[in-house]
Fold:
Amino acid sequence: MKQFLDLAKERYSVRRFKPDPIPDDILAQILEAARVAPSAKNTRPHKIYVLQSEQALAKVRALTPCAFDAPCVLVVGFDTERECKTERLGGRRFGETDVAIAMTHMMLCAWDLGIGSCYVGWFDPAQLREAFGIPSTVEVCALLPLGYAADDVVPNERHSILRDAADTIAYM
Ligand SMILES: Cc1cc2nc3c(=O)[nH]c(=O)nc-3n(C[C@H](O)[C@H](O)[C@H](O)COP(=O)(O)O)c2cc1C
Structure:
């Protein structure tokens, strides 16, 4: 296991993959990283659909340019009936935040295990729900293509465009 900050700095979005499948034990660890992620009021509303069959992958590739021919794509959402919602605090909802945390756990765990990934929001949730028969109670938020990075993959130039800490952090 790497030092955490090294891992967080090294990870970058992978958008080209080898066709090799992800071994089951590696995929299980990535999914476990989502299972242990924190969530508002511990509601754990995550719902993850694992697309690995040729048929399922063909469907998702037809619905987004960002499946990147990965050998595995996770469709990640949350159950609106489990989601933490508040009547007070302006009616805040936390399902999408819970998904984002689980996504982050999975991306970092995957990287630690030698698997590349990319957080993808570029798809129409309604189309995806219909294509995979996902219940209307599940809100789909993100896709996570996963796989071994192609040999010549390098970070996108945006990976190293960071903002100064002084622009994003205020000490009070
Ligand atoms: C909420 C969210 C949505 C994103 N959606 C997409 C997407 O649809 N397609 C894509 O190629 N990258 C997507 N990305 C990846 C970002 O472009 C990427 O994380 C950013 O440019 C920094 O690069 P890095 O991940 O290599 O450090 C998304 C990232 C986040 C956090």
Observations:
- The chain has one domain: 18-149.
- Residues 18-149 form a domain with the NADH Oxidase fold (CATH 3.40.109.10).
- Residues 95-112 form the longest helix (18 residues).
- The chain is about 35% helix and 15% strand.
